[in-house]
Design brief:
This protein is of the alpha/beta class and 478 residues long. Helix content is 20%, strand content 22%. The protein has helices at 2-5, 8-13, 118-121, 130-138, 175-178, 205-218, 243-247, 261-265, 297-313, 343-350, 412-417, 433-447, and strands at residues 22-23, 32-34, 39-44, 51-57, 63-72, 75-80, 86-95, 100-116, 145-149, 172-174, 191-192, 195-196, 225-231, 275-279, 326-329, 365-368, 459-464, 469-473. The strands form 3 sheets. Strands 1, 2, 3, 4, 5, 6, 7, 8, 9, 10, 13, 14, 15 and 16 form a 14-stranded mixed sheet that branches. Strands 11-12 form a two-stranded antiparallel sheet.
Length: 478
């Protein structure tokens, strides 16, 4: 993207000395590139050198010479023409000063960028449904899903390029292979309570369940789905937006913005994608919720994040759509970080203060409500029928399926059968399949021809008389 890559990066790259030929993080073997649009691969090179790039269809042997350009003294970009879904490709990049690098087993499909804080990051290992899903994948289901878990890049120096990142040690994985890797072998995910999780067990439950539920809805088990996870626990929304977006909103919760935008967002804006998923807010509950209408607080920042991310991802025509689908998860009970009095205002602000998605300020957005899917055992770890035999002690409530919300009663046997540990307590609800399913349901109905509602009942107003109050609902959304 010339508009993105030729401005600020030129200034930053002046501080970078000679760099070997490298792909930016997120470009590895087994990756998924966006089908049907222009896409790109990019990275670092020796200062002043040029690169050439070739994409080889390994099935037919045909080769495509890719258009390449230097976007700064030490950065390169190769543009891939629109390519249909599927296939198996090798991308080879060669430097004019010597050396070459390759991506093998790349394919094309629909790519989604999953971001936010710890509930988006929460691994399958800490969810009731994770073990079942691993078994399903091991038996051949959802083999068209591949995923990439971007590491926390706080270690980058201020002088490194924003639009390329080469410090990560993580790779793309296809589900079928990832499900065979046991815990304790890979160090890519990191240490979760002294558990070195496998790439599959360590991947975002919400992001993965969105993809599996979407496959269930569409019946499409062939088109590849690529999931990019870029999430950091304990973060506020201001860290995820650019300084210009931050400065457009008043009464923010932090004095500055952009702390994670540089390390966790900017390295991917030249990657064409289908859409976004956003799950954040717990660490922002203690701040000022504000209102997007007067440009204040979280409400303004949420609208600004959606607009700015869409804008920068679509700078180059023919790549990511400028109105790409954008899904948001509202917070569950218990997710306020001690600021429960702000929870209603937070959920209102998550919609840009319209109370529903989509709306005028946030078109082509959709929401999965999480208010009714907090952890079913609150501060207790027991999910077994006989709680006195559970490994976490007897202090467990004897729920029955009837005690679950109607939409979740089908989950009761899963919760009973699969004890799993909390991660830092009920602020991270262990029911994540319903979150992913609701995201997929809304996305399917809004963008893929589904005929059901894209949101739950939405209040349109009320009539008050001395004797009663009549609540009116938006019938167009029912």
């Amino acid at each position: 993207m010339k508009g993105v890559l030729c401005g600020l990066t030129t200034l930053l790259s002046a501080h970078v000395g000679s760099a070997e030929l490298l792909f930016s993080d997120g470009f590895t073997n087994d990756m998924v590139l966006q089908q049907g649009t222009k896409s790109a691969v990019y990275g670092l090179k020796d200062v002043g050198s040029d690169v050439t790039a070739v994409m080889t269809d390994t099935t037919t042997g045909s080769k495509t010479q890719l258009a390449t350009r230097s976007v700064s003294d030490s950065e390169w970009k190769a543009v891939i023409p629109p390519t249909k879904a599927g296939g198996d490709y090798t991308i080879t990049v060669t430097g004019s000063t010597g050396g070459s690098i390759e991506i093998e087993r790349a394919t094309f499909g629909n790519v989604y960028f999953c971001s936010g804080q710890s509930n988006m990051q929460l691994p399958l290992h800490f969810t009731f449904e994770g073990a079942n899903l691993r078994d399903e994948v091991g038996n051949g289901s959802y083999s068209n899903i591949r995923f990439y878990n971007h590491p926390n890049m706080k270690g980058q120096t201020p002088y490194e390029p924003w639009w390329t990142s080469t410090h990560g040690n993580t790779s793309w994985y296809n589900n079928s292979y990832a499900s065979t890797i046991p815990d304790g072998v890979s160090d890519e995910v990191g240490d979760y309570g002294h558990v070195n999780l496998s790439p599959f067990n360590g991947f975002s439950a919400t992001c993965m369940h969105f993809a599996t539920s979407l496959i269930d809805k569409t019946g499409d088990h062939t088109t590849p789905i690529g999931l990019i996870l870029s999430a950091v626990g304990g973060t506020k929304i201001e860290a995820w937006i650019s300084n210009s977006t931050f400065n457009s909103c008043k009464n923010q919760s932090t004095p500055t913005g952009g702390g994670l935008y540089r390390e966790m967002v900017a390295p991917f804006v030249n990657t064409s994608i289908t859409g976004f998923l956003w799950y954040q807010g717990e660490n922002s509950c203690g701040g000022f919720m504000g209102n997007s209408a007067d440009g204040t607080g979280y409400g303004c920042a949420q609208v600004g994040l959606v607009k700015s991310w869409r804008s920068i991802w679509s700078v180059e025509e023919g790549t990511t759509s400028p109105d790409a689908p954008f899904g948001i998860v509202s917070l569950a009970a218990g997710g306020s970080e001690g600021h429960g009095n702000n929870m209603a205002r937070m959920r209102w602000a998550q919609t840009g203060n319209y109370g529903v998605l989509p709306n005028k300020a946030m078109p082509r957005t959709f929401m999965a409500h999480g208010y009714d899917i907090g952890d079913p055992w609150a501060n207790r770890n027991c999910g077994k029928q006989n709680c006195t035999q559970a490994p976490f002690g007897p202090n467990c409530l004897n729920y029955s399926a009837a005690d679950f919300p109607r939409d979740l009663q089908f989950m009761e046997p899963v919760v009973r059968a699969h004890d799993c540990p909390f991660f830092m307590g009920p602020i991270h609800p262990r029911l994540k399949y319903p979150v992913g399913r609701r995201l997929a349901e809304a996305y399917f109905n809004m963008f893929l021809g589904g005929t059901n509602s894209v949101t739950g009942p939405t209040i349109a107003g009320c009539d008050v008389t001395p004797d009663y109050v009549t609540i009116n609902y938006n019938k167009e959304l029912m």
